[in-house]
Amino acid sequence: MEEKHILKIAGELNITAQQVGAVAGLLAENATVPFIARYRKEATGSLDEVAITTIRDRLEQLGELDKRRDAILESLEKQGNLTAELKDKVLAAETMAVLEDIYLPFRPKRRTRATMAKEKGLEPLAKMLFEQDDIGVIKEAAKFVNAEKEVDSVETALAGARDIIAEWVSEDPQARAQIRSLYQKHSQYVSKVVSGKEEEAVKYKDYYEWSEPVASAPSHRVLAMRRGAKEKFLLLRVAVEEDQALSILDSLFVKSENAAGEQVRLAVRDSFKRLIMISMETEIRLESKKRADEEAIKVFAENIRQLLLSSPLGEKGILAIDPAFRTGCKVVCLDKQGKLLYNDVIHPLGSDAAQRQGAKVATWCRKYHIEAIAIGNGTASRETEAFIRAIHLPEEIPIVMVNESGASIYSASQVAREEFPDHDITVRGAVSIGRRLMDPLAELVKIDPKAIGVGQYQHDVDQTLLKCSLDDTVGSCVNAVGVEVNTASKQLLTYVSGVGPKLAERIVAHRDENGPFESRAQVKKVSGLGAKTFEQCAGFLRIRNAKNPLDASAVHPESYSIVNAMAKDLDCTVADLISNSALREKIKLENYVTDTVGMPTLLDIKAELGKPGRDPRKQFELFSFAEGINTIGDLEVGMELPGIVTNITAFGVFVDVGVHQDGLVHISQLANHFVKDPADVVKVHQQVKVRVLEIDIARKRISMSMKK
């Protein structure tokens, strides 16, 4: 572990080196971020998951920088170019850009105009000109005219010398640093429509003639322009004021107002236009793309977090419907654990037999003890909802519209085929809709997060970075809620701290072969689950109705002895501590502080005893769309409607009002005050009231406002 990295990160995050070192040490032992954040607060000074993740990622970045540094030093040594001064520069480089600038003159490269000029023997002339002494330039250049070396004139000699100087200028670290700074602070994105593609590229109309500073361009616009360029609808450039760049380079390299100085001036202009400008534009485009990716991924990950932590209805008997017009509505009945009991198809829409179809639904509700009805929000959803409401089922059976985004992905997946090998994709899709109502988290973990539909340009961003971020987010959510080990799917168990896919399969197999686990300790019997893994996962596993009530809580088994001591000191049982708040108030936490257990852990234990295993997600709230508003054609400007937030982006939020087309509440319409980040105002799946501002039926666009 590099001490310099720990000190650097500590300075960047404004925390102590001890905190960074503790996190680095735990990570080196394969501890997970959720485990460190929840159960190692004394070691880390109570750092949260965000800080721990930042430390982890920064350690990886600095490690990659060191790997590259070592490779460069090795290359320079093999070339025979590694001097003490150069080595010091390489070791002192703090960013990849600076490191690559140092290495650039020595990097093996294809033949360039400069290398060809050197082969013709023109490097001494270039050095002479670069000194910019008051010499007879023409006379000196004439000495290098050599027909055998294809230097047939003075101008050819001077042009070759300028090529060499141009490469020196382009590879100079100081010049690159200053021009890079100019691009970073003052460059502009310049976008134009490709001539003749105006009609085809209408979705990029905003960017037909567009420019804005790279430094402040928001993520969604950067990614939109890049996509337009990739699809060959837009011409996109990163540009700076050429005079500013040349002024910087002249100040560095043009030292004399004589003939030699003029040759250097010409070389500087060639260097910028032919070499530096292209190099810097590429670099800045990549840099701004990385920033845009990070911002888009951050938005996507937060949306996923909010969706995964949506309120669960809980263990209820569910009748779920995947609506359709032509092929009929697929109906499934699920028990309280989400097990498929029955499936069928009804054709209630536009059918003369709707009454008979309704009687079927009522019969199924009685037979399978249905406590709620879930309807997918896709095609024919509002019509299906109206049909179900017309049956006049008991009032205690709520009818809930469920976002079915990604259900079709799940229904065709290997996961779904394993769960329901004897049923087709329509049955699987309906089951997924029903289970989402019961527990969004448990069901959505079976789907690739990218397919859930709450992102922004998710297919345009760095896919490796996206996957890493979404995996972190899903894992964070799963461990925050906790997992009932006796009912969890292997997909859900996969995200438990320290478990992973192979061990998740073994846990499920062990459960199937030996029956439900009766205690957390029994989980140790699973093949391949050693002491270290048990330490990582145990606190996040739940076993309801276990003999030891702590097995259903977030109290880690390593702390059971502390709780037992608390109970003994108060002459009661652990169950008494959990059920009696007056007893808990008598606990003197300071009595249980040790060298390894401090007040952060003890406070967590006391808080958990007051709500053992309680789901941290909010209580489920019933929601209904406005009656009679089923299509975009039913909307009118000025209407006020209830809606559900389906997606949050940097420029606003999308809201479902039940017309099969989400409306956009632009960031400027989210509140009466200035809003910097839409996520500060609303959350995914939040119930909101909106007012219709504009309707464009042809383009299927609805503009809305949440202003009071």
Description:
Strand 5 (329-334) and strand 6 (340-346) form a beta hairpin. The protein has a five-stranded mixed beta sheet, with helices on both faces. Strands 11-12-13-15-14 form a five-stranded mixed β-barrel. Among the domains are: 3-106, RuvA domain 2-like (Arc Repressor Mutant, subunit A), CATH 1.10.10.650; 117-301, Orthogonal Bundle (Tex N-terminal region-like); 318-438, 2-Layer Sandwich (Nucleotidyltransferase, domain 5); 632-705, OB fold (Dihydrolipoamide Acetyltransferase, E2P) (Beta Barrel), CATH 2.40.50.140. With 708 residues, it is an alpha/beta fold. Helix 1 crosses helix 5, helix 9 (123-131) packs across helix 11 and helix 14 crosses helix 15 (259-308). The chain contains 29 helices and 15 strands.
SSE inventory with pairings:
Layout: H1 3-13, H2 17-28, H3 33-39, H4 41-44, H5 49-79, H6 84-92, H7 96-103, H8 113-119, H9 123-131, H10 137-142, H11 154-170, H12 173-186, E1 188-193, E2 209-213, H13 219-230, E3 234-239, H14 242-253, H15 259-308, E4 318-322, E5 329-334, E6 340-346, H16 354-367, E7 372-376, H17 381-390, E8 399-402, H18 407-411, H19 414-419, H20 425-438, H21 440-444, H22 463-481, E9 483-484, H23 490-494, H24 500-514, H25 531-537, E10 541-542, H26 560-569, H27 574-579, H28 581-585, H29 599-610, E11 640-649, E12 652-656, E13 663-666, E14 687-696, E15 701-705
Parallel strand pairs: 4-7, 7-8, 9-10, 13-15
Antiparallel strand pairs: 1-2, 1-3, 4-5, 5-6, 11-12, 11-14, 12-13, 14-15
Helix pairs in contact: 1-2, 1-5, 2-5, 8-11, 9-11, 9-15, 11-15, 12-14, 12-15, 13-15, 14-15, 15-22
